[in-house]
Amino acid sequence: MTATEPTSSVHVPQPVAQDAPPVHRNVHGESIPPLGLWRSLAYAIGGGGWVMVDRLLLTYATVFFLPPGDNTARLPDAALFLGLTLWGAISLGGRVVDSITDPLMAALTDRSTASIGRRRFWMLIGIVPLCGLTAALFMPPDDGPTTANAVYVGVVLTSWYVAYTIYNVPYTAFLADLGQTSEARLSLSIYQAVFQIAGAACVMIGGNAVLGLYSQEQPDGTLVAGADGYAALAALFAGFAALWMLMPVAVNERRFTRPPNPSKSSPFADLFSTLKSSQLRWFLLGTVSYWFGFNTVAQCVNYYVIVLMGKDEGYAALVLAGVFVVIGVTFPVVAPLSRRFTRRRVMIVGALAQALLLCLVAFIQDPVVGTVLMACAGVPTCFVMCVPNSLLADLAEQDARESGKSREAMVFAAQAFFLKVNLGVTTALIAGLLTLGRSVENPLGIRLTGPVAGVVLLISAFAYWRFREPEGQPDENLADNLAPAGAPEPADPLHHGTNR
């Protein structure tokens, strides 16, 4: 180059450390700060809220409408077709209808442009209907097996499922948004599981304690609470649940999440696209089958206590207290075990252990054996509450990397779709088994529930054996449509100018 030639500025790229973590930026172009303990807990406590209403339905609805022994049912309990009762048909039909709304709700929340955030907006809409319908379900117009009850339950239960979807789908997807790394998602998932267990314990232990206050001895010798007891517990815990479900809304979504790049495909096209992943399919089969076992115990624990152990609902509170003590003791070891042996292996061992324990339900003869057996089930129950959501969040991140689209809610909706169908099948199957006997004189149907669930749990173990955990990678594809660095941060509409 001669002195008369113009000089040019040449940019020499600087080397970047290969192991440097990716810098995540929010919708304002700023680096996303650490979520922190208090915001993590605020998010996690919402999980305890929706679990409260879920457990109210799962634990008490079947025993409320089809009481044990010779007590008067509140719905006709005769088998309609292949052992399917009216309560089983309503539950299964409602779950099928509800499962169709999951991909629709996922698309709505993934594509929302609400100023307070695409997750918080829909969560706020869902809280009041969900909690109100939970209480209403336990207040049917009649105290006997009438047509009015059947119509009332069908309408309320189907509406409950839709309200549940409106809150639950954006809430679960929020985990993938807030957790910027696999480790952060595992931590959030464990915090979430702590509050889910707390919410379940409040309902399952506290609820049975409430029912114990209303229990009366029936002509067949069983101790069962009346309709007023169930109405009281539903109203009480639905109110608590609403307060817990409000807490995640305190997290400023736009400050702590990355900018979305939502898919423009139809909801069901997105759903089928996510299900093309073989690893997601194995994960869903393993997780849904595992939850089948837990849901069986949750729905049948009062039958086990009243019929097989000869106690009342008040004693069921003590049995469940033992379960939750074991769960609490197990919590601290879940993360170390997951890191040491992988989350997949933890789930395999848990499914096999739960299968064995549930098969032993058939042999419960007295309160001591039943109480110890139920308490031991707390260990594998802790695994299913802590581990799967972190795995699913990793799969959602992997889907976003590979597709270039922000459809985290759709990945969680795929799980919700099958979990809800699974729960409907579980309820219908249990109701069918109970037609074989749910009294002290003939407890055959109750005894069969455990072994049937145990067989399904073997499917869970096999599916997790085939599953491979996704590997964490940088998220280059997710940063394509970031706001310019240095853009001003608008005030959070829910916090009046603060960004907390």
Structural summary, described in words:
- It contains 16 helices and two strands.
- It has one domain (37-258, 266-470): Growth Hormone, Chain: A (Up-down Bundle).
- Residues 1-20 and 473-500 have low confidence and may be disordered.
- It is mainly α.
- Helices cover 67% and strands 1% of the residues.
- The protein is globular.
In which range does the helix fraction lie? Answer: 55-70%
DSSP strand tally: 2
Strand content: under 5%
Provide the residue-averaged pLDDT: 81
Pattern of helices and strands: HHHHHEEHHHHHHHHHHH
Summarize this structure as a short list of keywords or feature phrases.
500 residues; single chain; 16 helices; disordered N terminus; Growth Hormone, Chain: A
Question: Which SSEs are present, and which pair or pack?
Answer:
Blueprint: H1 36-65, H2 86-111, H3 120-137, H4 147-178, H5 182-214, E1 215-217, E2 223-225, H6 227-246, H7 253-256, H8 267-274, H9 278-308, H10 313-341, H11 343-359, H12 367-376, H13 378-386, H14 388-403, H15 408-434, H16 444-466
Antiparallel strand pairs: 1-2
Helix pairs in contact: 1-3, 1-4, 1-5, 1-6, 1-9, 2-4, 2-8, 2-15, 3-4, 3-6, 4-14, 4-15, 5-6, 5-10, 5-14, 8-15, 9-10, 9-11, 9-14, 9-15, 9-16, 10-11, 10-12, 10-13, 11-13, 11-16, 14-15, 15-16
